[in-house]
Amino acid sequence: MKKVLLVDDEILVREGICNRIQWEKEGFIYCGDASDGEMALPLIENLAPDILLTDIKMPFMDGLQLSRIVKEKMPAVKIIILSGHDEFHYAREALRIGVEEYCLKPINAKELLQVLHGVAAKIDMEREEQKNKELLQMRASINQETVKEQLLIDLCSGAIPTADAIHAAEALGIGLIARHYLVVLAELTDEAETHSLFKQLLSDMSGHLHVKRSKKEHVWIIKGEETVGVENTVHSLIRKLKQIEEGLGCILYYGKGTVKGRVQEIAASFSEAEQNKCYHYFLRNRPIVSVDKGGLAGYDRQQVTNFLKMGDASRIDSFVCGYIHSIDKQTGAESKFYWHYLILDMIASVMAVIHESNGDVQAFLSEMAPVEETLLISNTLEEVRACATTVLMLAFQHRERITDKYGELLAKAKDYIDKNFDNPDLSLQAVAAYVNVSPSHFSGIFSQGTGQTFIDYLIKTRIKRAMELLKTTSAKSYEIAAMVGYNDPHYFNTVFKKITGVTTKVFRNQA
Asked: Do 156 and 275 share a domain, yes or no?
């Protein structure tokens, strides 16, 4: 049904039109009326009529003034003027404004209904046309998206000449031209593709070229005017993929090429990304049985990662000696391949930690070149140990640079946590926003700079304060829980016992 609103300064006219027509029977809803244009405007905005019936001559705001405003704000509303004046200039002005019909008073119910049904039919026709237009646009968009996907796939495979690629990109409205290009490949699970973080990733990367190459494989062509900008974008992309991994507790495989300066070299960067993804797959799926039984064993990547994040540089020598001795003792491995592999995986672990804290991964890789050359000619366990020591020393140098760079930021973050730990809603996102960095960036910086995760630091801060309150006040356990930022007393007691080894009651009695 079409909604009709009437504006006329004569109450008898309003009542007559309202009462003489069986609105619902005729397929209309009489949604309201007003005595002048000024009174009608808020009604029109609130009720959103399909058809506006209005007189011309009215106080405060006449029908032509009202029609101009309505056509400007709500162009879909159809206007029918009911006027007692047949002067040509009124009709001409109404036509200029875009009024549908100009009817002279007096007008009977039958005549008015005929006009209303004609306007209603026009509304139906326009809506159907708009629906068909949107359907055609949607189909065209789908077809265009298919052509766009094929173009990007052809670029990555080198199947299209540069001139043809540029011409096709222009026709599709794709911004292909840039000074630098780099390809990133990621193999995602179905669960990862529906994750909110992945949807946000697609949104964040909307300024770059993306195509789903196969059922699970996504390709990004990162483009930019500066090499540094391209690399930073890639680091951000990979960091977000890692967040999806952590959020889902699954393994995703990805790889990146190197920066290229020509459209025709996008295929080369894609090829490098594929190789890198394969290497990533190799590292993530290495065998974990002993060499004597046909495989590798003993390597604990997490132990290396923990030492990189929380260890002391002065303990590098003892860590390497103890670590390699432990593996040697467990496996009795004598294979040169085994020890070379161990160092390569250690390098991969360092790269992951540096990348997580937004450090300079490329600089670290450059420093690794001579280490890898030395590794290739290493034949003794002592030489392997020396390579491992060098890797960790360089890693700690990077960690120190990161800590120095973000020292002030970390101090500010810790001060904010210390002052707001009693807020149950305090989160990594809130602290990151306070120090003006992204949550993922802040997470890496914080763990590198403090030797513990944000959550661990917050929990320890809260439990430390709870211990003080248990010692110095008579507040009940649930009251202390609220004082240190826990809404759930049971959860607070669980965390307290996990950290201190005793319940709050036992702790208070011992104190």
From this structure: yes
CATH number of 258's domain: 3.30.310
Question: What pLDDT shows up at residue 282?
Answer: 42
Instruction: Choose one of 235, 262, 284: the last residue of a domain.
Output: 284
With H, G, I as helix, E, B as strand and everything else as coil, classify residue 53.
Answer: strand
Q: Which domain holds residue 320?
A: 291-402
- Residues near 334 by beta carbon (within 8 Å), at least 6 away in sequence: 291
Cis preceding-peptide flag for 106 (omega within 30 of 0): yes
**Polymer length of the chain:** 511
* Maximum average pLDDT range among 115-129, 212-226, 228-242, 333-347: 115-129
Report the CATH number at residue 87. 3.40.50.2300
Higher pLDDT: 356 or 14? It is 14
For the stretch 68-97, pLDDT in tens is: 999 999 999 999 998 887 667 787 888 889
Whether 262 and 346 map to the same domain: the answer is: no
Within a domain: 158: yes
- In a domain? residue 118: no
- DSSP letters of 309-370? HH--GGGHHHHHHHHHHHHHHHH----HHHHHHHHHHHHHHHHHHHHHTT--HHHHHHHHHH
- Whether the CA torsion 186, 189, 192, 193 is positive or negative: it is positive
Q: What is the pLDDT of residue 274?
A: 75
Helix or strand or coil: residue 296? coil
- Tell me the CA distances in angstroms from 138 to 9, 124, 153, 203, one per residue in order: 46, 21, 23, 20
Tell me what percent of the residues of the chain surpass a pLDDT of 70.
Answer: 87
Say what percent of the chain tops pLDDT 90. 36
